[in-house]
Specification:
Length: 125
Protein backbone atom coordinates (compact mmCIF):
# COMPACT_ATOMS: atom_id res chain seq x y z
CA UNK A 1 0.00 0.00 0.00
CA UNK A 2 1.21 3.50 -0.80
CA UNK A 3 1.97 5.31 2.49
CA UNK A 4 1.34 8.69 0.87
CA UNK A 5 -2.32 7.70 0.44
CA UNK A 6 -2.77 7.16 4.20
CA UNK A 7 -4.16 9.86 6.45
CA UNK A 8 -2.63 9.27 9.86
CA UNK A 9 -3.86 12.49 11.46
CA UNK A 10 -4.85 12.28 15.12
CA UNK A 11 -8.10 13.98 16.10
CA UNK A 12 -8.26 13.36 19.86
CA UNK A 13 -6.78 11.35 22.69
CA UNK A 14 -9.28 10.66 25.50
CA UNK A 15 -8.17 8.62 28.50
CA UNK A 16 -10.56 6.36 30.42
CA UNK A 17 -10.40 7.32 34.10
CA UNK A 18 -11.64 4.84 36.74
CA UNK A 19 -13.65 5.94 39.74
CA UNK A 20 -14.70 4.39 43.04
CA UNK A 21 -18.08 6.15 43.28
CA UNK A 22 -19.47 7.25 39.90
CA UNK A 23 -21.88 9.89 41.25
CA UNK A 24 -19.32 11.41 43.65
CA UNK A 25 -16.72 11.60 40.89
CA UNK A 26 -19.18 13.21 38.46
CA UNK A 27 -20.05 15.79 41.14
CA UNK A 28 -16.32 16.39 41.83
CA UNK A 29 -15.44 16.97 38.18
CA UNK A 30 -18.48 19.10 37.36
CA UNK A 31 -17.81 21.25 40.46
CA UNK A 32 -14.22 21.62 39.21
CA UNK A 33 -15.56 23.00 35.91
CA UNK A 34 -15.89 20.01 33.59
CA UNK A 35 -19.08 19.72 31.49
CA UNK A 36 -20.94 16.48 30.90
CA UNK A 37 -21.13 15.87 27.15
CA UNK A 38 -22.70 12.42 27.34
CA UNK A 39 -23.52 9.93 30.07
CA UNK A 40 -24.69 6.35 30.52
CA UNK A 41 -24.65 4.05 33.55
CA UNK A 42 -21.10 2.96 32.69
CA UNK A 43 -19.39 6.03 31.18
CA UNK A 44 -19.48 9.80 31.37
CA UNK A 45 -17.73 11.93 28.75
CA UNK A 46 -16.46 15.11 30.42
CA UNK A 47 -14.91 18.17 28.81
CA UNK A 48 -13.02 21.23 29.94
CA UNK A 49 -12.47 23.56 27.01
CA UNK A 50 -11.28 21.32 24.19
CA UNK A 51 -9.93 18.61 26.52
CA UNK A 52 -12.01 15.50 27.22
CA UNK A 53 -11.91 12.24 29.11
CA UNK A 54 -14.20 9.31 29.83
CA UNK A 55 -15.03 8.72 33.48
CA UNK A 56 -15.66 5.00 33.97
CA UNK A 57 -18.11 3.48 36.39
CA UNK A 58 -15.36 0.98 37.15
CA UNK A 59 -12.83 0.89 39.97
CA UNK A 60 -9.56 -0.89 40.42
CA UNK A 61 -7.53 0.61 43.25
CA UNK A 62 -4.16 -0.18 41.74
CA UNK A 63 -5.15 1.29 38.36
CA UNK A 64 -6.68 4.44 39.88
CA UNK A 65 -3.80 5.13 42.23
CA UNK A 66 -1.22 4.68 39.47
CA UNK A 67 -2.93 6.91 36.91
CA UNK A 68 -1.43 10.36 36.50
CA UNK A 69 -2.87 13.05 34.23
CA UNK A 70 -1.26 16.36 33.34
CA UNK A 71 -3.48 19.41 32.82
CA UNK A 72 -1.59 22.40 31.47
CA UNK A 73 -3.33 25.68 32.26
CA UNK A 74 -2.57 29.38 31.85
CA UNK A 75 -2.06 29.94 35.58
CA UNK A 76 -1.66 27.13 38.13
CA UNK A 77 -1.92 29.54 41.07
CA UNK A 78 -5.37 30.68 39.91
CA UNK A 79 -6.47 27.06 39.53
CA UNK A 80 -5.20 26.24 43.01
CA UNK A 81 -7.18 29.17 44.45
CA UNK A 82 -10.27 28.08 42.47
CA UNK A 83 -10.07 24.54 43.87
CA UNK A 84 -9.46 25.74 47.43
CA UNK A 85 -12.40 28.18 47.17
CA UNK A 86 -14.66 25.34 46.00
CA UNK A 87 -13.59 23.23 49.02
CA UNK A 88 -13.45 20.24 46.68
CA UNK A 89 -11.28 18.10 48.95
CA UNK A 90 -13.45 18.61 52.04
CA UNK A 91 -16.67 18.01 50.06
CA UNK A 92 -15.62 15.02 47.94
CA UNK A 93 -12.34 13.68 49.32
CA UNK A 94 -8.92 13.53 47.74
CA UNK A 95 -5.92 15.76 48.36
CA UNK A 96 -4.31 18.94 47.12
CA UNK A 97 -0.70 20.05 47.50
CA UNK A 98 0.84 23.51 47.51
CA UNK A 99 1.86 25.16 44.24
CA UNK A 100 5.59 24.84 43.54
CA UNK A 101 8.14 25.68 40.86
CA UNK A 102 9.60 22.48 39.41
CA UNK A 103 13.01 21.77 37.91
CA UNK A 104 11.30 20.85 34.62
CA UNK A 105 10.38 24.57 34.22
CA UNK A 106 6.76 24.28 35.24
CA UNK A 107 4.86 25.64 38.22
CA UNK A 108 2.38 23.06 39.43
CA UNK A 109 0.45 21.35 42.17
CA UNK A 110 -1.11 17.93 42.60
CA UNK A 111 -4.83 17.31 42.91
CA UNK A 112 -5.86 13.78 43.81
CA UNK A 113 -9.48 12.98 43.03
CA UNK A 114 -11.81 11.00 45.35
CA UNK A 115 -10.71 7.72 43.72
CA UNK A 116 -6.96 8.32 44.01
CA UNK A 117 -6.31 9.53 40.44
CA UNK A 118 -3.49 12.08 40.43
CA UNK A 119 -3.81 15.26 38.37
CA UNK A 120 -0.73 17.46 37.98
CA UNK A 121 -2.03 20.96 37.15
CA UNK A 122 0.69 23.20 35.76
CA UNK A 123 1.81 26.15 33.71
CA UNK A 124 5.15 26.86 32.03
CA UNK A 125 7.58 29.18 33.77
Amino acid sequence: MNNQALNLSVVELKPFVPCKDFEVSIAFYTALGFRILWQSEELCLLSLGTEKFFLQNFYNQEAAENLMLHLQVENADDWHTHIEDLKLVSKYGGQITAVEDREWLMRDFVLIDPSGVLWRIAHNI
